[in-house]
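Tokens for chain A. Residues wanted.
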């Protein structure tokens, strides 16, 4: 048996439950997102989760030269930045739930 709330209170409670359900669905979706970024030349690519966990790094053999370690570092940095941008763009496709009134 449900409590006997005034009609507007019952509607408010229902809206709160709907909003909570929307947040839960959005959170589940966001937890599955991954973003991939490359350095721009295709030499380095990285994949990361929406939480920022790095899940994959791929480095083309042509850039693995001990004399050019600083170049490889720059390429990885750029790929990570691009993966973060990819995730941001994906997240912007899913606006935060708002008032349902």
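Reply:
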């Amino acid at each position: 048996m449900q409590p006997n709330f005034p009609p507007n209170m019952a509607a408010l409670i229902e809206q709160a439950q709907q909003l909570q359900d929307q947040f839960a669905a959005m959170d589940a979706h966001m937890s599955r997102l991954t973003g991939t970024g490359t350095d721009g030349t295709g030499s380095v690519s990285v994949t990361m989760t929406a939480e920022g966990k790095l899940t994959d790094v791929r480095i083309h053999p042509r850039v693995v030269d001990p004399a050019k370690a600083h170049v490889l570092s720059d390429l990885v940095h750029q790929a990570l930045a691009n993966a973060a941008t990819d995730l941001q763009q994906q997240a912007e496709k899913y606006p935060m739930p708002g008032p349902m009134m």
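DSSP finds two helices and three strands in the chain. The first helix runs from residue 7 to 32.
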